[in-house]
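quick one before i forget lol
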Amino acid sequence: MSEPLDPRLLVRQEGLAGYWTEFKRRIKGGELGPLPVIIGLIVIWLVFQTLNDRFLSAQNLSNLSVDIVATGLISVGIVFVLLLGEIDLSAGAVSGACAAVLAVLNVNNGWNPVAAIVAAVAVGAAMGLLHGFFFAKLGVPSFVVTLAGMLAWTGFQLYVLGPNGTINLPDGLVTSLTDTYFGYVIAAYGLAAVATLGFLAVSIVGNNRRRAAGVPSRTLGDIVFRTAVLAVVAFGAAYVLNLYRGLPLALLIFLVTVVLADFVQRRTKYGRSIFAVGGNIEAARRAGINVAFIRVSVFVISGAFAALGGIFAASRIASASQATGQSNVLMMAIAAAVIGGTSLFGGRGSSYSALLGMLVIQSIASGMALQGVSNSIQFMVTGAVLLAAVVIDSISRRSQKASGRA
């Protein structure tokens, strides 16, 4: 059986028909990518819009875009751990503990909010470093290490907050993280333009490098088509946001974080090492990769992102309390990464999984809230979606093995 053509060659040889040929090849080989979650998100939006015409209103979508940020940031960190085929059960507790540290330093001790934020993130990274040490250096399973961390950091959170259990945050830098909107129309459209032009520039530069190296490259028409699709999505989102209060600062920070995390994962030696360790740890070790460093570092990253998520969660409600980071925060962060397309088996996924997965989860929550449906039903539906995502991932892996691509 001959090897399939590179997708770039298919498009070059067959034109637009090459997309369909490549799509069929990917489906047959189990390489589904983000397709299932995108289809699922479209179906969810259509269903809830049919039930309530306020669902796709500018106000609801704008609120939804801010609501995904806190847990979404935690999920971005979870993605790094999942790429190794490991798990971090402490992320929710770390986020709550770091929110408590921020509040105590800023409110009780009078620290500058910037210094308090930096200190809180540093505490989260230190917690992750501790998890990574026990996991990578002492060989304790990540499940056990982070489960112990979840219990310990929850206790630490309660201790830091003291007997009152809640610290209200004053109006200022921290609360402005989720309450600031760029009301000028140019802000949202400018971001859309930067994203579109940036994608076009990166595509052209990358294509030129591939052509110079003598490997398959895309046609100009292919690049323009992909850029046009992104432009439609970006400027459409900007139009909707401008119908309400404009571009939310929290969403801007989240999107920039996702893009930077994806750049690290896919465009740096460090990121490729994470995929290598997650795909085959023994092969990665023989290739000269410092496996222990990679394994420790991903937990440091997860802890830092959990701290950021906790800060944004505290900003959203203008307080840090015993409930911050608790309840279903951890489960939703993990579910978002998996629903968005990151494999639980390691070696496959991206930071965009956190964005897509959180859109699915928060869309379900928002739609059901508009319908007055209880949280119990929401949890059951989200659980069903998560199970479906894992089943699709498992079937995909089996298909890839059958076709010799795994």
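fyi Residues 31-183+245-402 form a domain with the ABC transporter involved in vitamin B12 uptake, BtuC fold (CATH 1.10.3470).
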